[in-house]
Design brief:
Structural class: alpha/beta
Strand order of the largest sheet: 3-2-4-1-5-6-7-8
CATH class of the largest domain: Alpha Beta
CATH topology of the largest domain: Rossmann fold
Distance between the termini: 39 Å
CATH superfamily of the largest domain: P-loop containing nucleotide triphosphate hydrolases
Helix content: 40-55%
Number of domains: 2
Oligomer: single chain
Largest sheet: 8 strands, mixed
Bound molecules: guanosine-5'-triphosphate, magnesium ion
Shape: elongated
Length: 313
């Protein structure tokens, strides 16, 4: 069952996606847009330059080659009349690449579990608070679990966010076993009638303990309690890291399975183009984007809106 939380009226009133893309749009992607505004001939030099600029805008070599080849072939067959027409075709192709529309979360009742993973500092804890508020506003009853027990500050940070968004937090002391905290969380959720458990996890562990093994253990504990859980394993990526995000996504996908992505810090990044390589190379849906540091700076990812915003004036 896919729980439809993406009705427009429920979207938070924080920084919008278009606004958060200012850096990407004004920066390297601006150079792509400018090409279509100049009166230029659509010759071999044009396509070569477009390829170069798309790569600089962090779309990745593979994705760029596919996009430009498609445009070039279309032009060979039926000649674009103007650069504007070629731009419209590029925008269309980019939208298609992103899959179009939004992808929901699978959050069955009575209790769904969302595991939130990612390397340190990408924006996991902040995104969890934003997601909790978003879900609460959609009528769900979230409960947060402080599964990042590696640092005391991480536990405190989640507690502070929990208070801010008025969502309860289950925590134990620093150094405790994350699986034990999650086990407690499930018990607490059942006792309090919460229907979505969102688990924060560490982005790095003591060097002797393998992060992926720890995450797998948490998954096993959850499964023992709720056989089809975790229902979502969301990987948080930092948009600022550009193509590096792709490398992280590959290793988490291999180790723990990922059902969707949260792309945080889109507002701070000039590398929003990485979205296209992620979509193409991993076929993992981007479910949410973080568009700022405030709790409402968060939105479901919408492919059409994203591609449209990149080309907006
Ligand atoms: N501008 C901006 N900053 C963000 C966004 N999301 C998170 N941040 C900031 O990124 C920093 C790290 O965020 P955290 O949520 O603590 O990241 P984390 O992945 O939980 O980090 P660790 O617990 O250390 O692994 C904080 O300063 C956040 O305010 C976003 O969408 N936009
Ligand atoms: Mg954290």
């Amino acid at each position: 069952m896919v729980f439809n939380i993406f009705r427009k009226k429920e979207q938070p009133a924080g920084a919008g996606v278009a606004e958060s893309l200012e850096k990407t749009r004004g920066g390297l992607f601006g150079a792509v847009r400018n090409m279509f505004q100049a009166r230029r001939e659509l010759d071999a030099a044009f396509w070569d330059e477009l390829e170069e600029r798309l790569i600089q805008a962090d779309l990745g070599a593979h994705t760029t080659a596919d996009l430009v080849d498609t445009l070039r072939e279309t032009h060979d067959k039926r000649r674009f009349d103007s650069p504007e027409q070629a731009e419209a075709a590029l925008r269309q192709e980019m939208m298609r690449l992103l899959g179009g529309g939004t992808v929901g979360l699978n959050l069955p009742l009575p209790l769904a579990v969302i595991l939130v993973v990612g390397v340190n500092g990408v924006g996991k804890t902040t995104s969890i608070a934003k997601l909790a508020k978003f879900l609460a506003q959609s009528g769900r009853k979230p409960l947060l679990v402080a599964g990042d027990t590696f640092r005391a500050a991480a536990i405190d940070q989640l507690k502070v966010w929990g208070e801010r968004v008025a969502v309860p937090v289950v925590a134990q002391g620093p150094g405790s076993d994350p699986s034990a905290v999650v086990f407690d969380g499930i018990k607490a959720a059942r006792a309090r009638g919460a229907d979505v458990l969102i688990v924060d996890t560490a982005g790095r562990l003591h060097t002797k303990i393998n992060l992926m093994e720890e995450l797998k253990k948490v998954q096993r504990i959850v499964q023992r309690q709720i056989p089809d859980a975790p229902h979502e394993t969301l990987l948080v990526l930092d948009a600022v890291t550009g193509q590096n995000a792709l490398v992280q996504a590959k290793s988490f996908t291999q180790a723990v399975g990922v059902t969707g992505l949260v792309l945080a810090k889109l507002d701070s990044s000039s590398k929003g183009g990485v979205v296209f390589s992620i979509a193409q190379e991993l076929s993992l849906p981007i479910k949410f984007v973080g568009t700022g540091e405030r709790v409402d700076d968060f939105a479901p990812f919408d492919a059409g809106e994203f591609a449209g915003a990149l080309f907006a004036e």
